[in-house]
Amino acid sequence: MAKMRSNYLSRADIEAVGGKVAADEEFRHVKGETGIWISNYARVLSKRRGKPRILKTVFQRGYHRLTLPQYMHGKKIKTMYYVHVLVAQAFCDIPSWINPGERVEIHHKNSVNRMRDIAGINNATNLMYVPRRLHKAIDSIAEISVNYKNSWRKMNFIQAAEYYGISPYEFFGSFANEKEKRPDRTYGKYQYYSPTIKTEDEREVKIEVRIVRIREEKGK
Prior knowledge:
With 220 residues, the protein is an alpha+beta fold. The chain has helices at 11-16, 83-91, 132-139, 157-164, 168-173, 214-218; strands spanning 27-29, 36-39, 44-46, 53-54, 58-60, 63-72, 75-82, 104-108, 127-131, 141-148, 151-154, 185-187, 190-193, 196-198, 204-206, 209-213. Strands 11-10-16-13-12 form a five-stranded antiparallel sheet. It has a four-stranded antiparallel sheet with strand order 1-2-3-4, covered by helices on one side.
């Protein structure tokens, strides 16, 4: 059966809105919505009025959102969406290290600014799913470095966990809760931790990390 015109996006449709903003830009249909697509560069394209157009979004307290109307049983219903959620749902997979069935949230790798819009903040490459119970801890850290052959090497939390052969859950559990896990020492904006943790498979692993917390970054 032929696709409904409003639910089919052609190359000509993309050209009609000025073309791709990058060679790897891709549009995917927004589930549950007729004639609406989201791109990995956080652009929302609509064909609801026939002619393709890029929808404007509203920036509020760090996040872009838009409202889409639909008619159900003859009644007009409006649904509000956050753009980063649409992007993640279309382009991001849940990482294999997250426990099955665990509640997840969408994390911005480069943090949002509540007052200022940042270009590319909602691009798919800047988003990832994280466990809800770790999200606050992940958001609180501006920088992570591990002691690699007696020098500090910057890594993200996944790389750091892999370096020590532990899970991200175990990695954050070793220092993330500042009220319970006091740093061994501080120097300027840096906090140093060197705990020995016992893993779920009964191994003892020595962790040596240097971190910068977000509040310290803001105070620069």
